[in-house]
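Propose amino acids for all 868 sites.
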């Protein structure tokens, strides 16, 4: 046992705790960390290293720990944590975890997590002396103050402030937005804090020195060895060698000696200094200009090999190596928000340069204030540097850094990506400055040439459960339903997920499968009348004096000359000229349009509108409002559609002369205020009935009742897909894949180059966009009318039977058509329009299907049925 009889400012000896580690029953005290309790019980090896499998023990006393990682299975599951950050609780069950996590076990109870939101004038990160002083000053000035600290700070008397113990600032963002993770029990919390001013009193971390076998259990940072004595009453070793580049480690040497640890030697790379003289006068053996060449022991350190300034060597017995290679201010949060660094020659480290957001301040040792002066000493020279560890969690050594630099990498960021140094759980807290120093040294540059790589939030690991908090399951990704959804459910609809929407896929009758139900629904639309819930279409109101100008710039065709009461189909392209979305624009007034989008594209299109209005065309007087949820839409399609709408009751003249295709009328339908649009996605006579969502169910049921004499049939998305494909109407995202232009789709008629500039126009002039061998939309008719080519099937020009075969295209949509009494498909085919009338082949596991290339319209080519 290494627990002292007395002492330990953080522990409560009157509250013993039982815990299990690696199957062994052990004991500790309230206030212990798992690391301090393991050291107190003589546990040297916590886990194997992740890549090399080397035994690893505790190296630090805080969140900078790069070596000792564990998995907690009780009382709550935590799949990977540094042992130095785990608070010991009664009944804790843990085992070593080699620096890599794993997925949560199926059936494991989810952790209880909640989110809280707070505002304050001043938020202070760190409850050390500088942080507490800053908090007191802010309280005295009348500020609302939040003070957070990773540990449970003792002696902090600030009743006027909110003190969050065991809490970590995970990330710092614009305008004083701070995300804080509070590791409370039984519920952990994620705080979203908005602060007028943020003060970082984050302190500094000691850094290691790379020497042979510096990862052996028993090698520890000097300040951490002293912290275990002072905070936990634990002596981490019986006989120590202190290895240092600065006078700060002498304090640690005295703390260890006072606790009963023998100090074999203080090995100081500096040749002489006042700290060395004082230590000698105090009875310490000080080796000036010496270094540690390596350690011996299995698995814990049992001996230390020393090397002198003249190359002389000596081995001393010791079970503890306390290392101090200097101190690094904790600047991760400062840098994450754009703060810069400068090299401090005296401290041999990088400190904040003061150039950062006006609302952000750094105080205390995080600025370098009060840190000991140090020599820039990174590693002990040797012929073999393959066990001089730099990043303990990634098992990367000085030799690995040398390999990266000799391979031509100059930037520390590139070295990071080649070696993965700084990418593990500790994010380079002990290895970042060390790596930068080694790279600068290898390149013959000054120590200030390159700083450490930047760390990304979160500052310490946090579970996805905590980030999600209460926003899980349906609360994270809610299922959206239309106001007509209850009717669909009551009438046996089978639903499919379209984005977040639950849409009726098909309506099977007793004994029907998908194919049979879809065949019946399609025939009803083609020969009588069918009805579909189209409420999920994206709907955006575009309003303002410049609405027409704006839409001309967004769509490939002109919308400004659209007459009030008329409708026009439009395509939107990206800057690359590729089709992004489609829909119709309905002009209800000179300054007002209702724009529809695909179901899945509504948010994307609105975001696109707002982006261009706010960043490029902020002089336009246009306002865009999503009204998708506000309007229910019932699409009535088929030769008897006019009869059904009339029977439901309307004050709108439905005659073809008064109400032609692609026009809009306002009135009532089934006594509900309505917009009635002559728009067809089936190729049949069709009306879209737009009513306020609260009238959706009423209007649907009224149309259902009115349509009974005409055999009205509800149909779903699968029938819709068949009907539109028979007419050659594309679905963006199914028949397109982000690489197709309007010209590829045979829609050159929708590109109006005379109207002025629009998004994507210039890209149409690119040589690649104008290639004659680009893929074109075509139709396919299998030579065997019952052969169904699966969607996604690749097409070849010749069925050679030899692999590989050059692919010339692929199938985008493929269906069985009741009205055509055969199968058909749409496809993208290289030089497709030139191939019409030829035969292509789809090699499939069950045999090759041959198909004739046709125009992509299979039904009512002239559009007479649609025009009604």
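Proposal:
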């Amino acid at each position: 046992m290494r627990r002292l009889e007395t002492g330990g400012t953080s522990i409560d000896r009157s509250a013993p705790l039982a815990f299990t580690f690696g199957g062994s029953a052990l004991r500790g005290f309230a206030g212990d960390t798992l690391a301090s309790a393991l050291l107190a019980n003589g546990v040297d090896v916590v886990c194997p290293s992740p890549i090399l499998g080397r035994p690893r023990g505790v190296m630090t006393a805080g969140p900078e720990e790069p070596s000792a990682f564990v998995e907690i299975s009780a009382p709550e599951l935590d799949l990977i944590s540094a042992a130095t950050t785990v608070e010991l609780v009664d009944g804790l069950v843990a085992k070593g975890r080699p620096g890599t996590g794993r997925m949560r076990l199926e059936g494991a109870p989810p952790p209880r997590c909640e989110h809280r939101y707070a505002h304050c004038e001043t938020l202070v990160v760190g409850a050390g002396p500088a942080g507490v002083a800053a908090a007191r000053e802010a309280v005295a000035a009348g500020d609302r103050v939040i003070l957070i600290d990773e540990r449970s700070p003792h002696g902090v008397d600030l009743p006027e402030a909110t003190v969050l113990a065991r809490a970590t600032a995970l990330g710092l963002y614009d305008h004083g937005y701070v995300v804080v993770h509070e590791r409370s029990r039984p519920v952990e919390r994620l705080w979203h804090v908005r602060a007028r001013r943020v003060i970082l009193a984050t302190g500094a971390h000691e850094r290691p020195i790379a020497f042979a076998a510096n990862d052996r259990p028993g090698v520890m940072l000097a300040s951490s060895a002293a912290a275990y004595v002072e905070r936990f009453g634990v002596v981490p070793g019986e006989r120590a060698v202190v290895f240092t580049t600065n006078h700060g480690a002498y304090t640690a040497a005295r703390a260890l000696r006072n606790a009963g640890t023998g100090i074999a030697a203080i090995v100081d790379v500096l040749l002489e200094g006042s700290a060395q003289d004082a230590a000698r006068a105090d009875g310490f053996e000080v080796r000036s200009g010496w270094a540690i060449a390596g350690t011996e022991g299995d698995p814990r350190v049992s001996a230390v090999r020393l090397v002198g300034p003249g190359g002389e060597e000596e081995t001393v017995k010791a079970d503890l190596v306390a290392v101090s290679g200097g101190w690094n201010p904790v600047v991760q949060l400062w840098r994450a928000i754009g703060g810069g660094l400068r090299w401090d020659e005296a401290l041999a480290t990088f400190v904040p340069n003061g150039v950062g957001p006006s609302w952000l301040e750094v105080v205390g040792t995080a600025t370098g204030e009060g840190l000991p002066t140090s020599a820039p000493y990174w590693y002990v020279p040797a012929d073999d540097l393959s066990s001089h560890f730099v990043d303990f969690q990634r098992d990367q050594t000085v030799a690995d850094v040398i390999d990266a630099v000799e391979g031509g990498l100059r930037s520390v960021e590139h070295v990071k990506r080649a070696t993965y140094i700084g990418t593990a759980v500790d994010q380079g807290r002990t290895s970042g400055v060390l790596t930068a120093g080694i790279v600068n040294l290898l390149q013959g540059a000054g120590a200030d040439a390159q700083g450490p790589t930047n760390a990304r939030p979160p500052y310490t690991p946090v579970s996805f459960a905590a980030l999600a908090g209460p926003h899980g399951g349906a609360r994270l990704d809610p299922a959206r339903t239309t106001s007509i959804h209850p009717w669909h459910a009551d009438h046996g609809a089978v639903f499919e997920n379209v984005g977040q929407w639950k849409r009726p896929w098909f309506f099977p009758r007793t004994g029907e499968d998908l194919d049979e139900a879809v065949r019946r629904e399609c025939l009803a639309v083609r020969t009588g009348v069918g009805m579909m819930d189209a409420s999920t279409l994206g709907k955006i109101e575009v309003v303002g004096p410049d609405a027409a100008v704006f839409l001309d710039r967004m769509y490939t065709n002109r919308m400004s000359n659209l007459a009030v009461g008329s409708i026009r189909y439009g395509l939107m392209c990206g800057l690359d000229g590729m089709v992004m979305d489609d829909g119709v624009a309905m002009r209800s007034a000179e300054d007002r349009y209702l724009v529809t989008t695909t179901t899945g594209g509504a948010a994307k299109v609105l975001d696109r509108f707002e982006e261009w209005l706010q960043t490029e065309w902020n002089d336009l007087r246009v306002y865009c409002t999503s009204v998708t949820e506000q309007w229910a839409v019932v699409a009535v399609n088929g030769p008897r559609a006019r009869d059904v709408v009339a029977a439901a009751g309307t004050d709108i003249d439905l005659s073809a002369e008064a109400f032609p295709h692609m026009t809009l009328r306002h009135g009532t339908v089934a006594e509900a205020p309505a917009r009635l649009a002559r728009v067809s996605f089936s190729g049949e006579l069709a009306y879209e009935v737009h009513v306020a969502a609260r009238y959706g169910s009423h209007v649907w049921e009224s149309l259902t009742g009115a349509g009974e004499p005409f055999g009205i049939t509800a149909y779903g998305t699968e029938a819709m897909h068949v009907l539109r494909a028979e007419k050659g109407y594309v679905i963006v995202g199914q028949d397109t894949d982000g690489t197709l232009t309007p010209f590829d789709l045979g829609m050159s008629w929708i590109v109006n180059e005379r109207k002025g500039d629009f998004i994507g126009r210039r890209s149409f002039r690119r040589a690649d966009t104008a290639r004659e061998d680009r893929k074109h939309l075509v139709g396919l008719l299998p030579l065997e009318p019952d052969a169904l080519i699966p969607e996604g099937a690749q097409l070849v020009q010749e069925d050679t039977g030899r692999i590989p075969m050059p692919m010339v295209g692929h199938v985008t949509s493929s269906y069985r058509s009741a009205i055509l009494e055969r199968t058909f498909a749409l496809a993208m085919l290289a030089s497709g329009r030139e191939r019409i009338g030829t035969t292509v082949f789809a090699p499939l596991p069950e045999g090759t299907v041959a198909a004739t290339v046709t125009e992509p319209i299979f039904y009512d080519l002239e559009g007479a049925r649609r025009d009604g």
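The mean pLDDT is 95. DSSP finds 18 helices and 47 strands in the chain.
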